[in-house]
Amino acid sequence: MKRYLVILAFLCCAVLLAKPVQEGDDRAMKIGSHKAGSFSLGVSNYGFCQDLFYPAGGGVKYLYKGAPWISAKKYRRDELGRQLYWMSATPGLGNFETVAYGSPDWQPWMMPVVVWCMCFLPG
């Protein structure tokens, strides 16, 4: 019963202390323009690029709509946290053997195993 009273008290406080909507706080789409040199890039507050003009101020429109991409380069590691390297100079079909850094088979010429992580942020 105490648990329900605490939850009810928390909800009442949250409702009473909620911030009221302020006048002029609209969420309408706003489009701005970034100009650098002879390029002009239109961006919006919804997280996507509207257009790309070259030359700026009325040239050719090269982009209809775009969104940002986030990517990361991540080195693969084994269960002990050691970085993994390819055993072959040209890894490919049939050459998937790896070796951990510091093991007896590791050589300085070996290339690290890299995984690219990409995320597309939809607009």
Determine Rg (CA atoms, Å): 27 Å
Spans where pLDDT lies below 50 across 5 or more residues: none
User: How would the global form be characterised?
Assistant: flat
- Hey, roughly how much beta strand do the residues contain? 25-35%
The profile of the biggest β sheet is: 4 strands, antiparallel
Mean pLDDT: 78
Task: Provide the succession of SSEs.
Answer: HEEEEEEEE
What does this structure look like?
- With about 120 residues, the chain is mostly beta strands.
- It has one helix spanning about 1-15; strands spanning about 30-35, 40-45, 50-55, 60-65, 70-75, 85, 100, 115-120.
- It has a four-stranded antiparallel β-sheet with strand order 1-2-3-4, with no helix packed on it. The protein has a two-stranded antiparallel sheet with strand order 5-8.
- Strand 1 (about 30-35) and strand 2 (about 40-45) form a beta hairpin.
- The chain starts with a helix and ends with a strand.
Short description:
With 123 residues, this protein is mostly beta strands. The chain contains 1 helix and 8 strands.
List the helices and strands and how they pair.
Layout: H1 2-16, E1 31-36, E2 39-44, E3 49-54, E4 60-63, E5 69-75, E6 84-86, E7 98-100, E8 114-120
Which key features would you list for this structure?
single chain, 123 residues, mainly beta, four-stranded antiparallel sheet, 8 strands, 34% strand, flat
